[in-house]
Amino acid sequence: MLRTVFTTGLIALVGLFVLRFFFGILGGLFGLFFGLVRLAIPVLLLGVVVYLALKMFAPATAKELRDKFGGS
Fold first, then answer.
1. How far apart are CA 35 and CA 67, in angstroms?
2. What is the pTM of this model?
3. Structural domain count of the chain
């Protein structure tokens, strides 16, 4: 009876350690991902502004860029 209680407690402690370790790594990965997204958004907005300016002032250049990067 006492052995079963200790075994259950040991399994619970190991499970808590594994969960803490797993979510610690996962939290770091989420932080890295959202940090990269935070850096990518201003670059995307700058690209949109440059493209719209090109579309207004140099439509031929904007069409070339759209054909080059837009695919078919």
1. 31
2. 0.55
3. 1
Closest CA relative to residue 51, chosen from 64, 38, 40? 64
Distance CA 68, CA 71 (A): 7
Residue whose pair of structure tokens reads 């932080």 in the numeric block: 31
Query: 36-52 pLDDT, tens per residue?
Result: 999 999 999 999 999 89
Domain range for 31: 2-70
Helix locations, 58-70, DSSP H: 59-70
How many CB atoms within 10 Å of residue 66?
Answer: 13
Q: How far does the chain reach from its first CA to its final CA, in angstroms?
A: 72
Query: Residues with Cβ < 8 Å from 54, sequence gap 6 or more?
Result: 61, 62, 65
Does the pLDDT value for residue 8 go beyond 80?
yes
At 67 the pLDDT is 87
